[in-house]
Amino acid sequence: MTVKQVETLDRLVQTAVAAGEGPDLIQTSGPAQTLQYSNNGNLLPLDAYIDKYGWRDKMLPWALEAGQVNGKLYSLPGNFETLSIYFNPATLDEHGWKPPTTLAEFEDICADAKAKGLVPVGAGNADWKPSTEWHVTWVWNAFAGPQAIYEALNGDRKWTDPVFVDAIALLKSWFDKGWYGGSTDAYFTNQFTTIYQQLAAGKVALIANGSWTFTEITPFFGDKAGNDATWDWAPLPSLREGVAAGVQPLSIGAATSLNKASKHPDQAAAVLDFFLTNPKRQLACLANTGLAPTALHFSDSDFPADTDPRIKRQYTQLSAGKNIGYTTWTFWPSKSDTYIYEEMEKVLVGKVSPKDYCAGLDTLFAEELAAGSRPPVPSPSGP
After folding, report:
1. 248-250 and 324-326 as β-strands: parallel, antiparallel, unpaired?
2. Which H or E element spans position 210?
3. pLDDT tens for each residue of 130-180
4. How far apart are CA 180 and CA 165, in angstroms?
């Protein structure tokens, strides 16, 4: 048996598809990678199967919109996640804190935690450099707001707009105060395992992280970890008046499309429908493996009885499709996305100003937008 790395498999699939071969169903890491296939003419539209399989009734409206290119559906999302605030309830109770819903509440917790010798926000990018964009994503969504981001992603607003610059300046100020990771220097060396251990031990007040935390955090809490600690999550707080609390930046970690070279497109589409559009099947997988489900309408009866109630609460809220925002790694073009986390490191250490950072992004993004490299962007939904 030969084991291939995921990156190698992706390249092999790309090469095969370009040669008119490859698998019937093409799975990518999300809309941005799918766009490369559709722009190259490698995919068959899925529109003929929308009514046949009732996808409009099964799937959340934005899920179909996020797979459309030039008015045609080319992919279905394989999963969806969001960003939230994670915390140890015992730690919050001990210090008289509650999950923050406003900028003032968030900053009050951070200031108090810092004064008491705690790390206000557990964070670090030693394990995964792109994790820096998680923090950019949440301040843009909770400060600028989804509508402003939607306008900028469509070229109707500049990334140099004060709502984006001021959000980056706000994030930088938190690092300067030592609220993130304990210090800016520590942020670059902190590992996720250490952060979760500190949260369980009551040494970290909050963590701003994604739904993938559900599977990562469990080993550090409870009997198996040798403690009686628990964890929970809360929606992101609002960081500016006029932006509703609880925005849910949308992350699509996978997408599936139909290869134009498929000799059995109808059968392949049937397989796609079978695996991705059954709520009970998707949620059973979530309960048993922690893998994020695809974007379907979920009801309470769809969840297995043994589903972790914290996970159920998140996907029930996400399934409601309200106050949906945008993650940078899902809806920004690839070069702009890389710029966001790589150049943000320079902002954090004072080598680049928030204004210049946003100006650089604006220039690069305009080029990629003009070249047709921006992934599909669903319309924002109100709170």
Report:
1. parallel
2. strand 204-210
3. 999 999 999 999 999 999 999 999 999 999 999 999 999 999 999 999 999
4. 19
User: What is the three-state SS of 119-132?
Assistant: EEECCCCCCCHHHH
Vertex 369, ends 368 and 373: CA angle to 5°? 60
Phi-psi region of 109 (alpha: psi -120 to 50; beta: other; left: phi over 0): alpha
Spatial separation of the C-alpha atoms in residues 78 and 265, rounded to whole Å: 18
Percent of the chain beyond pLDDT 90? 90
pLDDT in tens, 39-61: 999 999 999 999 999 999 999 99
* Contact (CB, 8 A) for 91 and 240: no
C-alpha angle 204-207-212 in degrees, rounded to nearest 5:
135
Q: Report the chain's terminal Cα–Cα distance, integer Å.
A: 50
Question: Taking the model in full, what pTM does it have?
Answer: 0.94
Please choose, from the candidates 286, 263, 300, 372, the residue with its C-alpha nearest in 3D space to the C-alpha of residue 81: 286
Q: Do 239 and 378 meet the contact criterion of CB atoms below 8 Å apart? A: no
Q: What CA–CA distance (Å, rounded) separates 74 from 37?
A: 9
Lookup: tokens for 155? 């070229």
- Kindly compute the dihedral angle of the four CA atoms of residues 218, 221, 225, 226, in this order, to the nearest 10 degrees: -160
Q: Which amino acid would we find at residue 53? A: Y
Classify residue 240 by burial, with Cβ atoms within 10 Å: 0-12, 13-18, 19+: middle
Q: At 83, phi and psi to the nearest 5?
A: -105, 145
Q: Is the pLDDT of residue 225 over 60?
A: yes
Q: Helix H segments across the chain? A: 6-18, 31-39, 47-52, 55-58, 61-65, 89-95, 103-115, 132-139, 146-153, 162-176, 184-187, 192-200, 213-217, 265-276, 279-289, 309-319, 328-331, 334-348, 354-370
Q: Residues of 98-111 as b/e, b for ≥16 C-beta within 10 angstroms?
A: ebbbebebbbebbe
CA distance linking residue 297 with residue 62, whole number of Å? 11
CA 4-8-11 angle, to 5 degrees, is 140
Q: What is the mean pLDDT of residues 348-372?
A: 98
Q: Is residue 1 over pLDDT 70? A: no
